[in-house]
Every structure is written in structure tokens, then in C-alpha cells.
Design a protein that fits this description.
There is one protein chain. 39% of the residues lie in helices and 15% in strands. The strands form two sheets. It has a five-stranded parallel sheet with strand order 3-2-4-1-5, sandwiched between helices. A five-stranded mixed sheet has the order 6-7-10-8-9. The radius of gyration is 24 Å and the shape is globular.
Length: 319
């Protein structure tokens, strides 16, 4: 599930409500609907503005034998807008194990099946990869129709470096676990992208400050919608803002700038120096790793892996 659409239609291009038959667009051009070849079609859908769907995606959704979707009510709104009457089949966390073989058997028997999420690009922060993996394992035809994606849209609008980035999905809900996971990314020389609950946003930004330092952050919300907003500043300032103002409305994407130039290399060098000192002093690899992890705040697994390298003669071995 890439993103959840807002149920309020605050843009002319957003999803119509039930019964809005007057806004349903009919297919243009020839009345004949071209059926695509047998296969599984991964189709990106809008993240807010219903106009953000490709002509190719509309053709495929009209022509396939069935559309597998998270929620038929949500997908149904989009289909009604464009006059698409293709059969929908529910495919979600609760029925996926049962429905996967059904969908793949249909493809194997010559049918064309489309997979969509409630909003955005399927497989991004949802379990659709299992369907794709099994389709590949069975040698079935498979293709992707690209389109809207909340993570990439937020990155583009953030004004933060986009030459190297990592999408981390959702962080843990509990602060302690969230800080531990953030520590894994502390030395990564890349922009980080996370989805986050609006209710946890202020606390999450405080954890970013504690784990990664007071980096520049962009908080993007209501992307492609009427009240789209991207607020950028130091993590601590944004945490204070949302603590004072309260949780923002809409879906939230948090984009975190990379460490300052040279910071990652400096952290790694400091860790190596401390490990070499501990190992030279007679500590075991395990004890040295625990000691340095406590001093630096680095994840224990990461420090232990580096201590193993140094202690066994790999890459700067300790004599």
C-alpha cells in the first residue's frame, strides 16, 4: 500500500463520492475495448488526485479480465469516474494466501489480471511482492505500468539531495524500537524516506534528532491534493512545531537529509579506532564490540560485524 487516498473530495480531480454519476467519464474513441495478452499487470493508481493516472493504465484496467484490489470500495470510485466496469476481486493481507493461487491460475489459463493498491504503486509498502514472486516462479507474463508514488513525489518536492536515497517504509511505532532502527541508517550517505502516522509525527521527529542528529527534514502531506504542503527545517524545529500545533491532517511522508559531508566517514573512522584500541588491549571481539557500541551509540550488530573484520585480519587487522 503506497498511500491511502483522502476520502474527502477537495479537488475537482479527486475521487467522486457514491452516486456522483454525473462526473463519470465515458471511454473516448472507439467503443471496442482491446483485451491485453494473458499476464499479470501491476498498475499504479493516483495517490490523491484522480487525474494522475496514465492513459495506458486506463486501457489496461478496461481490458483485463479482472482487477485484484485491496478494497473494492476504494478502487470502485476510481473505476466509476472513468466508466470502467471490469470485475474486481479483493486481494489483501487477510485473504492473500487463498487468493494468490486463484489469480495465478487465471493468468496461467490465458486471462489478463491487473493488480492495484488503494493508492499509488503496488508493492511499495505492501505485500504484493509475494504475488509477483510466485508469478515469476511459475514463468507467467508480468509487467508494470508506472505512475504515482508518494515516496518519490515527496523526495522531488523536498529540496533535499535526490541522487542517492533509501525508502524505509514505516518505522516501528514504539520510540525505543524506532530509535534503534534509525541508528542503522546513521552513517548511510543518502537521503532517507519514511511513511509515518500523523499522530506519531512529532515524536518520530524527536527520535530522528536523537538518533541521527539535527538533520534537515521535509514533511510532506496531502500530496497532489488541494492542501498539499511541504514543510522543511531542522528535525528539532519540526518536532517542536508539530508538538505545539498538533498532528497535521492527511497522509505524511518524512524525508530526512543525508549526514553532513564527511560525517559518515568520520563516524566509521572513530568506530574503527576505538575497536582497534579495545582489541589491542586484549578484549575479545564480542566484548570490544559491546564496549564500542556503548560509547558510540552505534547498533551492536553493526559494531560486532566490523569488530569481526578487524579481529580476523580483514581490512585493517589488529596485529
Amino acid at each position: 500500500m503506497d498511500d491511502q487516498p483522502d476520502q474527502d473530495a477537495d479537488l475537482d480531480g479527486e475521487f467522486p463520492e457514491e452516486g456522483d454519476d454525473d462526473v463519470v467519464a465515458q471511454p473516448t474513441g472507439s467503443s471496442a475495448i482491446r483485451k491485453p495478452g494473458a499476464g499479470l499487470y501491476i498498475v499504479a493508481t493516483p495517490i490523491g488526485n484522480a487525474g494522475d493516472i496514465t492513459l495506458r493504465a486506463l486501457d489496461i484496467l478496461r481490458g483485463v479480465d479482472a482487477i485484484a484490489c485491496e478494497d473494492t470500495r476504494v478502487t470502485g470510485k476510481l473505476l466509476r469516474r472513468y466508466g470502467i466496469r471490469t470485475r474486481m476481486l479483493p486481494y489483501h493481507d487477510h485473504n492473500a494466501a487463498k487468493m494468490r493461487p486463484v489469480l495465478l491460475d487465471k493468468v496461467a489459463n490465458g486471462q489478463a489480471i491487473a493488480l492495484v493498491s488503494d493508492a499509488g504503486t503496488p508493492l511499495v509498502s505492501d505485500p504484493g511482492f509475494k504475488l509477483v514472486r510466485e508469478a515469476k516462479d511459475r514463468g507467467l507474463s508480468l509487467t508494470h505500468l508506472p505512475g504515482a508514488n508518494a515516496a518519490i513525489t515527496a523526495l522531488v518536492l523536498s529540496g533535499l539531495p535526490s541522487d542517492r536515497f533509501l525508502f524505509g517504509g514505516f518505522l516501528p511505532a514504539k520510540s525505543a524500537a524506532r530509535r534503534t532502527e534509525l541508528e542503522l541508517f546513521r552513517t548511510l550517505p543518502a537521503t532517507l524516506i519514511f511513511y509515518e502516522s500523523a499522530q506519531r509525527l512529532a515524536e518520530m521527529l524527536a527520535d530522528v534528532t536523537a538518533s541521527l542528529g539535527n538533520r534537515e527534514v521535509a514533511v510532506a502531506r496531502e500530496l497532489t491534493k488541494l492542501f498539499e504542503e511541504v514543510r522543511r527545517g531542522p528535525a528539532s524545529d519540526l518536532s517542536a512545531h508539530y508538538t505545539e500545533k498538533g498532528p497535521p491532517k492527511g497522509e505524511v511522508v518524512v524525508v530526512i537529509g543525508p549526514p553532513a559531508e564527511g560525517a559518515a566517514a568520520s563516524d566509521a573512522a572513530d568506530m574503527d579506532s576505538l575497536l582497534k584500541q579495545a582489541l589491542s588491549g586484549g578484549m575479545s571481539v564480542r566484548d570490544a564490540a559491546a564496549h564500542v557500541a556503548t560509547i558510540t551509540g552505534q547498533p551492536k550488530k553493526q559494531v560486532y560485524a566490523r569488530a569481526l573484520q578487524l579481529g580476523t585480519g580483514g581490512d585493517g587487522a589488529v596485529p
